[in-house]
Amino acid sequence: MSKERHEALGLSDDQVLEMFKTMLLARKLDERMWLLNRAGKIPFVISCQGQEAAQVGASFALDRDKDYVAPYYRDMGVVLAFGMTATELMLSGFAKAEDPNSGGRQMPGHFGQKKNRILTGSSPVTTQVPHAVGVALAAKMEKKDFVSFVTLGEGSSNQGDFHEGLNFAGVHKLPVITMVENNKYAISVPIEKQIASKNVSDRAQGYGMPGITVDGNDPLAVYEAVKDARERAINGEGPTLIEAVSYRLTAHSSDDDDRQYRESDEVEEAKQKDSIITFAAYLKEVGILTEEVEKELNQEIGSIVNEATDYAENAPYADPEDALKYVYEE
Amino acid sequence: MAQMTMIQAITDAMRTELKNDENVLVFGEDVGQNGGVFRATEGLQDEFGEERVFDTPLAESGIGGLSIGLALQGYRPVPEIQFFGFVYEVMDSINGQMARMRYRSGGTHTSPITIRSPFGGGVHTPELHADSLEGLIAQQPGIKVVIPSTPYDAKGLLISSIRDNDPVLFLEHMKLYRSFRGEVPEEEYTIDLSKADVKREGKDVTLIAYGAMVHASLKAAEEMEKDGINAEVIDLRTVSPIDIDTIVESVKKTNRVVVVQEAQRQAGVAANVVAEIQERAILHLEAPVLRVTAPDTVYSFSAAEEVWLPNHKDIIEKVNQVLNF
């Protein structure tokens, strides 16, 4: 009997189940945040829904004890895979003092956590790209065996920092992996009005690095692409640009109404390819996700989300005096 | 003690810190073999190698972002922005990112970056090669803005800036780069980034300035001395944060103040100094605090530059107004 796809990639049954669990946790946390927002309990949500496969598939291909990540605001799957907990994410959603990302100082989705090597980012998109390039330059100078992994949306690939960062990485052959999560929309502007080339990955040629487009709904395809890219980076062969194509299943944010700019048929069609459904189908087909396992998983994730919500809701806000801290070294 | 120009003192400060701390990196456009368009980094790449002193592509925002990434890995980047007028290309990295890193991460991430950049008028470079844009950065909490006026201060302040654990903008006035030499110790020394310097003691009026305007103020003071007017001259050295205590102490003594800046008038450092003085020492004032500044127009074309820029005569005129109020 031929090997299953995940086995051919060197992934065990436990590892793929863990991947699915991380994807599902991201989805369920995100769904809970929307409910909390609509109930008036949290101010803002910016979703990962539809991009979990790319985020988790990529993260599992990295060395999560060594590599640095510079995520963008939809990357709940990445930061969960890198060690941020559901409770910490909920604390961020509620903007509570204990939020490890910024103590409620930034908007949700502005991930950063030193102990898990998650670089803190800014609000204008794409600023994280040259940061990740700087981290990769440090790895190269110190001959260390880590890579930096930076993500962004396809809309962000039009910013100057994308060009400036990737160009520097290409010139110096730095160990940085850039993954564009192409979800087809920059808020309301569709891909065809954003980018003249067929694929975002076509741009890699201009930076002297490989450019790869993969199915962002397939965590195993993304895993494979990132794993290859990491191997090249560690071997001194330089950076890679990966484009993971998926679809944004929600509106841009909790303050956006996507009915203004896209047809519901299009969204419904994309939902058929939702990785939470298709990856579950794969895991069932290969006998990993049995009915019993699925039931346990749903129960476990349900209670993680409930506990995280309760904890964060009851946690205190920062004292007003805290707004005056951390401006200069004290 | 050696006699150095300000640019030699700046190179010497970078050499000192490149030697002292292996985490110090110097980079920017043309700073490598070329030694910088003003020669501030001359010889540094040969001495410290291409890993620690290197050329970047022509991309200011990329330089700013790269600095942040390196700082997050424990380095002390000293990037150069070739002309400070080009800061608009890297404004987000400076004011939007490095100045806020400590705050937004709740103190877990920092940006010990020193951005060096030439600025200032009087050397026949037109707009965006001569503008005084320090006010843009001084308005942003989380970053310090340092502007030396002498070779001695340039070395000590630059060493302090590089060692500081917060980001620092270190602005180098182009007219002062080679216009005179001063005594600079060969050994290392630091100057407190929170202290103004009383350059000249006096009792009749206080002139507050920074950068090239310190020299215009000293010249004005010397001329006025001939007429029996005894002016005190304060060099701010750090325009953010400002050393208000030294200013207030002087105001209590002289009771009359003129604040001098090369930048245009509106929303600048001088306006801030005036506001601080009236809030803290209004009962010590015998006259309104006046300002000498460039006009609120875009930086002049070269042929009109000497008229457009403030000079010692403008300062004397304002001093006469505060004395005769």
From TrEMBL, chain A:
InterPro entries: Alpha-ketoacid_DH_E1_comp (IPR050771), DH_E1 (IPR001017), THDP-binding (IPR029061). It catalyses: N(6)-[(R)-lipoyl]-L-lysyl-[protein] + 3-methyl-2-oxobutanoate + H(+) = N(6)-[(R)-S(8)-2-methylpropanoyldihydrolipoyl]-L-lysyl-[protein] + CO2. GO terms for biological process: branched-chain amino acid catabolic process. One of its GO terms (molecular function) is branched-chain 2-oxo acid dehydrogenase activity. CDD domains: TPP_E1_PDC_ADC_BCADC. It comes from the Bacteria. Residues 21-320 form the Dehydrogenase E1 component domain. Its EC number is 1.2.4.4. Gene3D superfamilies: 3.40.50.970. Its cofactor is thiamine diphosphate. Keywords: Oxidoreductase, Thiamine pyrophosphate. The branched-chain alpha-keto dehydrogenase complex catalyzes the overall conversion of alpha-keto acids to acyl-CoA and CO(2). It contains multiple copies of three enzymatic components: branched-chain alpha-keto acid decarboxylase (E1), lipoamide acyltransferase (E2) and lipoamide dehydrogenase (E3). Belongs to the BCKDHA family. This is 2-oxoisovalerate dehydrogenase subunit alpha. It comes from Virgibacillus halodenitrificans (Bacillus halodenitrificans). The lineage of its organism: Bacteria, Bacillati, Bacillota, Bacilli, Bacillales.
UniProtKB/TrEMBL annotation, chain B:
Its cofactor is thiamine diphosphate. Residues 4-179 form the Transketolase-like pyrimidine-binding domain. It comes from the Bacteria. GO terms for molecular function: oxidoreductase activity. The keyword Oxidoreductase applies. The keyword Oxidoreductase applies. Pfam families: Transket_pyr (PF02779), Transketolase_C (PF02780). Transmembrane segments: none annotated. Keywords: Oxidoreductase, Thiamine pyrophosphate. InterPro entries: THDP-binding (IPR029061), Transketo_C/PFOR_II (IPR009014), Transketolase-like_Pyr-bd (IPR005475), Transketolase_C (IPR033248). This is Alpha-ketoacid dehydrogenase subunit beta. It comes from Virgibacillus halodenitrificans (Bacillus halodenitrificans).
